[in-house]
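Notes from the 1:1 (GR / supervisor)

We went over the backlog. Supervisor wanted to see one worked example end to end before approving the batch request, so GR pasted a single chain during the call. The sequence is below; no edits were made to it. Supervisor asked that the structure be written out right there so they could see what the output format looks like.
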Amino acid sequence: MSRWAWATVQPSAVRLAAAAPNPGVSAWAALQYAAQVRPEHHLLVLGATGVTGSLAVQPAKSEFGLQRVVVARRDTSRLDWLRDDGADEVIRLGHDDLTARVAAAHVERPFDAVIDYLWGEPAEQALAALGNQGLGAQFHATRFVQVDNMAGPTINLPAGILRSSGATLAGVGIGSLPREVLMQASRDSGPDCSRCSPADRSG
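Structure output shown during the call:
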């Protein structure tokens, strides 16, 4: 994990607060602590072409060794870049049927974790795809980790979706992570921009 180590956070309240919105820190904390990913896991990243989403896809493959990573976002040029940098499957929001694509992938090989940078309608569709599988549904635990809300601050979540899936919801941010987790993520994470997309390098 040394390629991603870029700074050591001093144990002060100011540096701890500054760590949470950092893209590398939040991506790392989402993968390691909230999603608890392992190499055999199947991961979905919603909003993968944002800076933070990109930084979740890269270490998911290169550092955590996940077998399969599926990404979803509107920016097709950066989706192509993510495919080259670790994504096994790309879902184009606004073009593909997100609910149908996630449901089909979940039936074929259940998702162990979802890292969500969008919330709003895309999160509603993804959660609906994880549940509502009918009488033949099989239990599979899926950690749905909420990190940002680029598609809206609220969702409509029917109770039946949670009753028909093994999904558990959690968030990543100050108040949802122990202090030591944020500090460890700050030590372990950080963007290596030799591997960032041109848009990331340009800021």
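Supervisor's comment: The two ends are 24 Å apart (CA to CA).
Batch request approved.
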